[in-house]
């Protein structure tokens, strides 16, 4: 058994918590683990670590690596993370993954592979594992899906119509797009429909057989080597696995399960899982049916209002009427069209080596709290328009400052003049934290001139 966790989503419906460079799958929304980490830990209940793979885009590659390293004991083989040259959709991503597993890890043509999203919630782990074990044992040469028993007329999900019941699964008659409310009610009442959870399972042989029938561009490229596939990846259409294969195939089956599933596609979905965010302080005066979440730790007070979702995240606040959660994507579209910075990052910006939080951002100075993960190393760089003061508050810092190399411990500091080549790295086994004070007349990220970089950004 193998699995590939799809980690390339942008998570636009959970803005302002989710941003382009740190989307939903990397957020800790339910527990002390991110949604990606939760997904990985669920797969560990079914198979060894070296049978679990990930596919993502370059922007999220180091987020995947860093988060899995946090929870996986021993050395993490980064070759288990597949990087797409560009983000197209699930069909090209899945095809690239199948080719990679076959060629680089010698997965056999009849070994079943589960492809699953990285950002879903599972309430009942025991039942979930039971459904997947059944699927792995019985998928055979079919294209298997995981169908969720619906418990309400949900208009935000796609549906699968069940056909004849076999011993361990249902044949699939058709896929349906997100319905209106009346249609969703009919689906629920009929008992013939399940929610499409976006989980697919099949062998390499079954995948290429169906691709030959219904997605010739993918099949033709799949006949080449992995390196050729990668080189020509951008020629493939941006199409989902649903449209490319599953909605056309005659060999689709579904394994039905009821295990407290949610795709957390809106803050309303999150409110169903966590009716109140335990880390958010609220005062509600003559207010009802309010869901409030403060990622920045601020108090949220409401007076005389009802049916609202309120989300605060240090640099942005979202307020919407309950029932309009799917429209948050329109906010993100507006931010993109108007090139507003809040679509990319929030005040905490994640980098391959760690992260930084902007504490003060004034015209004449900028203050950051920088965290460098163990063995993390920033690029060798210089700035033309700013100087920097570094004060270590935790851990050991190894610093290149011009021609000098120094080590600093807690409460020690150094000054980086304008134009000096410099580098910061963490040689220790715990996080390095420091305060950086920038002074000058410009503090944009484009005033970083890189000379060397282990993350290939120079």
Spatial sequence of strands, sheet with the most strands:
17-18-19-26-21-24
Structural class: alpha+beta
CATH topology of the largest domain: Spore Coat Polysaccharide Biosynthesis Protein SpsA, Chain A
CATH top level assignment of the largest domain? Alpha Beta
Beginning-to-end CA distance, first to last residue: 39 Å
> What's the rounded overall pLDDT mean?
93
Coarse shape: globular
How many beta-strand runs? 27
Helix content: 10-25%
CATH superfamily of the largest domain: Spore Coat Polysaccharide Biosynthesis Protein SpsA, Chain A
User: Helix count, per DSSP?
Assistant: 11
How would you characterize the largest beta sheet?
A: 6 strands, antiparallel
| Level-2 CATH architecture of the largest domain | Alpha-Beta Complex
Proportion of residues in β-strands: 25-35%
Radius of gyration computed on alpha carbons: 24 Å
Give the total of domains: 3
Poorly predicted ranges (pLDDT <50, ≥5 residues)? none
How would you describe this protein?
The chain folds into three domains: 2-262, Spore Coat Polysaccharide Biosynthesis Protein SpsA, Chain A (Alpha-Beta Complex); 275-341, no CATH class; 348-452, Sandwich (Jelly Rolls), CATH 2.60.120.10. A hairpin with a 2-residue loop joins strand 17 (348-351) and strand 18 (354-361). It is α+β, with helices and mostly antiparallel strands and 458 residues long. 24% of the residues lie in helices and 33% in strands. It has helices at residues 35-43, 58-71, 90-105, 125-138, 181-190, 204-214, 216-222, 226-231, 241-246, 267-273, 328-337; strands at 2-6, 52-57, 81-84, 113-117, 121-122, 143-148, 159-165, 170-176, 193-202, 252-257, 261-262, 282-285, 288-294, 300-303, 306-312, 317-321, 348-351, 354-361, 365-372, 380-382, 386-394, 397-401, 404-408, 413-416, 422-425, 432-440, 449-452.
